[in-house]
Amino acid sequence: MDITDDKLLKIALITSLIGLIGLIIFTPSIEVKEVKISDINRAMIDEEVSINCVVSDVKSSKSASSYFLTINDGTGQMPLIIFEGQIAQMQSNNLEIKDFKDKKVNVVGKVTEYNNEMEIVLSSGDSLKIIE
Distances from the Cα of 114 to the Cαs of 19, 24, 58, 70, in angstroms? Predict the structure, then answer.
């Protein structure tokens, strides 16, 4: 059996289509892991996690370009960082950061470490939602 350019092209196209169909089928089943604050550790750095918690404090940076929220889920507390791009996205949806204080929320963000402390960086402006 001779492998010609036409046959090689057909094999490559079929393999690519199978791969794309596999991605489309399996991508919706990839979920963000829901965790408790007490379970977050250095091994989870750069992982995206979901936390159900209460926003106990809201502070803005000196330049007011980012916000630092303190979140507490009953097992511990940690800072949640919201940067300027996410704030603009939230404001375009008519949400104000200060409105989240003392509310039960769901947070989706990336675990990071800053000055030897673990913190969560909000993934997007849609990743902070009031649940009660």
Answer: 38, 36, 18, 15
Q: How far lies 31's CA from each of 78, 123, 127, in Å?
A: 22, 14, 14
Helix (H) or strand (E) run with residue 68 in it: strand 67-72
The per-residue pLDDT for range 24-41, each reduced to its tens digit, is: 887 766 678 899 999 999
Identify residue 75 by its one-letter amino acid code: T
C-alpha separations of 90 from 61, 68, 69, 122 in Å: 17, 15, 15, 11
pTM of the model: 0.73
**Is the Cβ–Cβ distance between 68 and 120 less than 8 Å?**
no
Cβ atoms within 10 Å, residue 43? 7
Q: What is d(CA 80, CA 111) in angstroms, rounded to the nearest whole number? A: 9
